[in-house]
């Protein structure tokens, strides 16, 4: 992870919370969005100086009592509270919950069966570095025409085989992504949040991908790493410009499998009647699960 993820998290949550949401009067005109440090400190019962140290990264190990007070003051959701706790436990930059293991690219039989059952719904399993580990035929028919399945990692010297398609690599390095994803900036934000949700640079494979994207995509990637906390949304709407079906509005749900699996399931459903009809045409006929890697 970057040098001060805890401070970034606290600052962005503070700036995202309005006085009204915190139960405070709006007061005079504000020069910065969200709450002032002094307001959060008062709500949490800590000093402004201490909150400043936390946001600046000069103190990264607040007590459980302080964490609870800050979470209450910032009106954090359950997922945000879990992330706050995770950041304080991972304050040692040398620690990685994933250890040195390579990115997960294998499926348990029951997970494979689950994905098969989802046909013809577009669904994909991503690992911690956003490799497309496996996907339904419906997903292949949806994203194949926009070039996503061609965004593979370079072939390795060991076996000469290219890696599986990678969603982050496609979004940040393939020009077709900007035409396909009508809300490209939001998609890019969410992908960086997903990459940073885990140990990020403490995990070798994630660090290698981050270095690659920083070199190829430059500021489009690096400024997001510095500004976006690791809070990937679990649901939302994706607007996709499909070459054959036109603009599709897809509601997605992200489901985390067990930490041992290290995979996240993304399922896409039509968000309106027009998309429902268009998606039905795109994803038929449904066939068996396409495995990218065994």
Ordered list of secondary-structure elements with their pairings:
Elements: H1 5-16, H2 37-44, H3 48-56, H4 64-73, H5 78-89, H6 109-117, E1 123-126, E2 132-135, H7 137-143, H8 167-173, H9 175-180, H10 184-196, H11 204-217, H12 219-227, E3 235-242, E4 246-256, E5 264-270, H13 273-283, E6 290-291
Antiparallel strand pairs: 1-2, 1-5, 2-6, 3-4, 4-5
Protein architecture, described:
The protein has 294 residues and is of the alpha+beta class. The chain has helices at residues 5-16, 37-44, 48-56, 64-73, 78-89, 109-117, 137-143, 167-173, 175-180, 184-196, 204-217, 219-227, 273-283, and strands at 123-126, 132-135, 235-242, 246-256, 264-270, 290-291. The chain has a six-stranded antiparallel β-sheet. Strand 1 and strand 2 form a beta hairpin. Helix 1 packs across helix 3 and helix 8 (167-173) crosses helix 10 (184-196). The mean pLDDT is 86.
The gist of it:
This protein has 294 residues and is of the alpha+beta class.
Q: How many extended strands? A: 6
Largest sheet descriptor: 6 strands, antiparallel
Number of helices: 13
| Overall mean pLDDT | 86
**Approximate strand percentage:** 5-15%
The amount of helix comes to 40-55%
* Uncertain stretches of 5 or more adjacent residues: none
Q: Structural class given helices, strands, pairing?
A: alpha+beta
Shape: globular
Give the distance, in angstroms, between the N- and C-terminal Cα atoms: 29 Å
Major sheet: arrangement of strands: 3-4-5-1-2-6
**Secondary-structure element string:** HHHHHHEEHHHHHHEEEHE
Q: Report the C-alpha radius of gyration, rounded.
A: 21 Å
């Amino acid at each position: 992870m970057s040098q001060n993820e805890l401070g970034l998290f606290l600052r962005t949550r503070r700036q995202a919370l309005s006085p009204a949401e915190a139960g405070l009067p709006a007061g005079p005109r504000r020069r910065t969005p969200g709450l002032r440090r002094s307001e959060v400190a008062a709500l949490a019962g800590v000093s402004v100086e201490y909150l400043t140290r936390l946001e600046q990264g000069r103190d990264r190990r607040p007590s459980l009592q302080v964490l609870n007070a800050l979470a209450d003051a910032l009106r954090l959701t359950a997922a945000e509270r879990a992330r706050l706790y995770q950041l304080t436990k991972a304050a040692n930059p040398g620690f990685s919950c994933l250890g040195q293991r390579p990115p997960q690219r294998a499926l348990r039989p029951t997970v494979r069966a689950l994905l098969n059952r989802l046909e013809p719904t577009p669904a994909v399993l991503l690992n911690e570095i956003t490799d497309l580990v496996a996907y339904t035929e419906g997903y292949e028919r949806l994203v194949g025409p926009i070039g996503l399945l061609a965004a593979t990692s370079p072939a390795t010297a060991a076996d000469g085989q290219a890696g599986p398609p990678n969603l982050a690599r496609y979004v940040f390095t393939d020009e077709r992504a900007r035409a396909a994803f009508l809300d490209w900036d939001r998609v890019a934000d969410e992908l960086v949040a997903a990459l940073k949700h885990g140990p990020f640079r403490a995990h070798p494979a994630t660090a290698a991908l981050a270095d690659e994207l920083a070199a190829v995509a430059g500021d489009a990637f690096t400024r997001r790493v510095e500004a976006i906390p690791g809070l990937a949304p679990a649901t939302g709407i994706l607007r996709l410009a499909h070459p054959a079906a036109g603009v599709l509005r897809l509601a997605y749900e992200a489901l985390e499998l067990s930490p041992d699996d290290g995979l996240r399931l993304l399922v896409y459903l039509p968000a309106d009647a027009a998309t429902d009809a268009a998606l039905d045409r795109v994803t038929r006929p449904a066939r068996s699960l396409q495995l990218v890697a065994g």
